[in-house]
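A brief tutorial aside. Many learners find it easier to grasp structure tokens once they have seen a single protein encoded end to end. The record that follows does exactly this for DNA-binding transcriptional LysR family regulator. Read the sequence first, then the structure, and try to relate runs of similar tokens to stretches of the chain.
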Amino acid sequence: MQNLSRLAVFTNVAQHGSFSGAANALNISKSSVSKQVTALEEHLGIRLFLRGPRHVQLTDEGRALLQHGETITAEYAQVLDLAASLKGTPSGTVSVSMPRVFGFSVVKKYLGDFLAQYPQLKLRHGISQNNSQQLSRGDDTDITIVVGEQPDSSLICRRIASLHTSLYASREYLQQHQAPRRPSDLQQHNCLPVDYPNIDNFRLWRLIEQQQAVEVEVDGNLIMTDVTQVIELVQEGYGISMLPDYAVREAVAAGELVQLLPQYHGPNIPAYLIYSERRHLSPKLRVTIDFLTDCFRTEGLLED
């Protein structure tokens, strides 16, 4: 059992490329990581890493062992998850990655009650680049949320939200530029599109009025993939953008942003919760997935 723990430490060092990276991921000291790797090397009688000042590099023997080590530790993790599911008590750490705007606007205010309900559970929240591929890269992410069209993924993909969008600008911008009166007027403005993944031609804005749609090709001097950054730029008067209504409702209520062409709305942007397919879903993952789903439903973003 001791060597199994050392093997898990070894695979983490290989995945992160350093002792410090593995120490942060495992929440143990760097010296403990180094000692366990050294003990495993002595037990096996081979050298696993070439050690540098900041990074380590696998030896040929280390690369050969890593292929088997990852399989063994993954299967052992499934054994632990199965045992936990039989006990029925959610415990351990769940790594959740999502776009920055979701962490603050949707999930954060419900975290306290959730963690109080499951005191043995820990959440590690990371900011994603809106990419489902991180779940298959071995970076310890259990659940990720992406915005845009459904990704082509072999993982489990659950639609968790449908984000209504509208046009917004700041009062400062409107003091310097005449507000658009019709969709075609947008071509005379600096527009800030959001480059959502898997959505073609993000500069082509589709505006809908009473089920009638009109498309406008817009242009601007900034293109962003982070909705939160676009919101900040719009608030600072950089231009007009089509934004999720829920993400700017506080700014609208405070008078910082103004909705433009209110008779029109943009297309709904889907958001998906993605996680690895497992035959026995552990209690910690099950309750976290249910929690995230409930957050979006409570906020009125999940269409049943």
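Self-check: The radius of gyration is 24 Å. If you spotted this yourself, you are ready for the next section.
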